[in-house]
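Example 9 (inverse folding). The structure is encoded as follows.
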C-alpha cells in the first residue's frame, strides 16, 4: 500500500530532510585526502544529534553505523572505517535521519581532492540522472517513467545502472512502497499521485551493472572493479510537480 502524506505531514517530514541536506552539504568542505570514513561518520552523527534528530541507519537490520560510506568500486552500504581516503578517490555518503515521526534520506558522491576526468564524469552523470528522474515525479506519470529517465541518461553516457538495489517510498518508515527501480520501460508501475513521498536513488557503475556483497554482509561492490557513484533525494509529489525535500541550498 502506498501511503499518501498530507501537506502538514510533508512539512514535518521536510524538517528531517533539511537536516540530511545540511549534513551532506557540510561534508563538501570536510572530505579531503587523509580523512577517514569513520571521521566522516563522527562529523555527520554530531550534526544530526545536535539538531535533535536521530541517525536512521544505525541498527536498521543490524547495520552497524550512522552513515554509509562507499569508496571507489563500493556501490552502496559501505561501512565507515579508520582507513584514510586518498587523493583521487570518490566516496558516496548516504544519510538517513529520523525526526518527529518521519524519515529523510539522501546521498551524494564526493571527489577526494582532484579526481580524474572519467571519475568526474561518472559523478556528474549520476547527479544529472537523478535530476532527470525527479523531473518525471509528477501526478499522472507512473513510477517507471522515473526509472526510464534515469536509465536513458546513464546509458547514453556509456555507464550502467545497478539493478539489485532500488529507490523506495519513505515517510513514517524508512522504506515504504513503492519500489523505485532505476531502469525499465516507461509507462509501468503505480500511478504517481499528489502526496506520495519517494527516495529516488540511482546507483551508477562505470562498467557492468553487476554487484556483489562482501563478507561483512553489507558492502556492495562492482563485480568488475569499476567505479560506482550514488545520488539520492527525498522528493514529495505536489500538485504542480516534484518538491525536493533534501535540497542542498
Ligand atoms: N539509502 C539506503 C536505503 O534507503 C540506505 C539504507 S542503509 C541501511 O536503502 F543501513 F540502513 F540499510
Ligand atoms: Co534510500
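The amino acid assigned to each position is listed next.
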Amino acid at each position: 500500500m502506498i501511503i499518501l502524506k498530507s501537506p502538514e505531514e510533508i512539512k514535518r517530514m521536510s524538517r528531517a530532510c533539511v537536516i540530511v541536506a545540511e549534513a551532506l552539504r557540510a561534508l563538501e568542505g570536510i572530505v579531503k585526502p587523509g580523512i577517514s570514513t569513520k571521521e566522516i561518520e563522527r562529523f555527520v552523527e554530531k550534526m544530526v544529534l545536535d539538531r535533535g534528530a536521530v541517525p536512521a541507519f544505525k541498527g536498521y537490520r543490524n547495520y552497524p553505523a550512522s552513515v554509509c560510506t562507499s569508496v571507489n568500486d563500493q556501490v552502496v552500504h559501505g561501512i565507515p572505517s579508520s582507513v584514510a581516503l586518498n587523493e583521487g578517490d570518490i566516496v558516496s555518503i548516504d544519510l538517513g535521519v529520523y525526526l518527529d515521526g518521519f524519515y529523510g534520506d539522501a546521498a551524494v558522491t564526493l571527489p577526494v581532492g582532484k579526481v580524474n576526468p572519467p571519475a568526474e564524469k561518472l559523478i556528474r552523470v549520476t547527479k544529472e540522472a537523478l535530476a532527470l528522474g525527479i523531473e518525471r515525479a509528477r501526478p499522472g506519470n507512473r513510477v517507471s517513467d522515473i526509472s526510464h529517465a534515469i536509465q536513458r541518461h546513464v546509458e547514453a553516457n556509456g555507464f550502467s545502472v545497478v539493478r539489485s538495489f532500488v529507490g523506495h517510498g519513505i515517510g513514517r518508515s524508512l522504506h515504504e512502497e513503492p519500489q523505485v527501480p532505476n531502469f525499465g520501460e516507461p509507462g509501468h508501475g503505480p500511478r504517481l499521485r499528489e502526496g506520495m513521498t519517494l527516495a529516488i536513488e540511482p546507483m551508477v557503475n562505470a562498467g557492468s551493472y553487476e554487484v556483489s556483497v562482501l563478507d561483512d554482509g553489507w558492502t556492495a561492490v562492482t563485480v568488475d572493479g569499476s567505479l560506482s557513484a550514488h545520488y539520492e533525494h527525498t522528493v514529495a509529489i505536489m500538485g504542480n510537480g516534484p518538491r525536493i525535500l533534501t535540497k542542498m541550498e
